[in-house]
Design goal:
Blueprint: H1 5-19, H2 28-61, H3 66-89, H4 91-101, H5 103-112, H6 119-122, E1 127-128, E2 138-142, H7 146-149, H8 153-162, H9 184-187, E3 190-194, H10 198-229, H11 232-244
Antiparallel strand pairs: 1-2, 2-3
Helix pairs in contact: 1-10, 2-3, 2-4, 2-10, 2-11, 4-5, 5-8
Amino acid sequence: MLMGAGLLSKFVELVASKLIGKRLDIALDERRRACYSFVELLSVLKGFYSITVAFVDELQKSDLETWITINLIVIHRRTIDSLTIRFFELRNDLFFTLEVLDPPLAEIFEEVHAFKGSIFYALAESLTIPEEEPRNQSIQYRRPSELVLAIDLEQFYQSLQSHRGTNSDRPWMWPEELFEMANWETAFPSIQFKTDDRRTLDQFVSDLKHQSQLLEAAIEKLRALIKDNFTLDEVLVSSTKLAQS
């Protein structure tokens, strides 16, 4: 799900912006689940950030030698898969947490994370080495389209807020490609290029840089949310639960 980390980061920034400074007046069990959800989500984001930066640094240090990309995919494949699984396993805890704290946020989350209709599920294999070509001669990745890069989550959130509790149809302001059971291939078109295609590799690195910027901003916002709302003991208990899970 590496190439979907930017979209996830945009959503996390929205969550943090709506919940920072908001008193979490919830039951003890719900508070524990909220702390666990946010701490685990932070860990997942930091993992994707670390891998994304590693790709960019190694490719630039090697003067964009394309064979390095193949090595990086092989080296980081298990970690990317592990982070993706952790994010999917967090779905219920995070959804119920958001439903209690801010229902419109839960609704936005559900739109793009509804089991196999999830765009994140579709992006689970967003960076691959095509098997049909011998000797690992090509790379394939899902590039965020311009409509994804231009998504205004704040506008969509305000739309849900203004129509909450009414029977009127709300004006959908989010691209149809990102709804449940979406045409996700339009939102994240597939790019396949030969390992000697320097121009496309430059674009790949540029896409990763943009994702790393989004991830870094989301990590800082989520870290601030956790710091403002949970004690060190609560965070440590969540971390212990992560280590044991």
